[in-house]
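Sequence only, no structure available. Ideas?
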Amino acid sequence: MAITAIAARPSAAESTLNAYNTTFSVLELDWHWDRETYDRLNAEGDGRAALRTYVQQHRPHLLRAYGVDCLVDAIEQTRRALSR
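Reply:
I predicted one. Tokens follow.
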């Protein structure tokens, strides 16, 4: 009798985290969120709030050239487009 391993489906949070990391890569951003970072950022609200917080805390130099909402919009639009 052969035993077949069943791969566990990723949780919704894990799928979303993977989608963000894929989006960062597609946009050629040198960002990568691990699960701890994702959970900490999302404790404050939704994905938009998490992105805003991340940019303001970890990539503030980008705010000299871009508005935070412009960056968040670009990331979220790309993430949604990739998930279609």
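Helices lie at 12-26, 35-42, 47-58, 68-82.
Hope that gets you unstuck.
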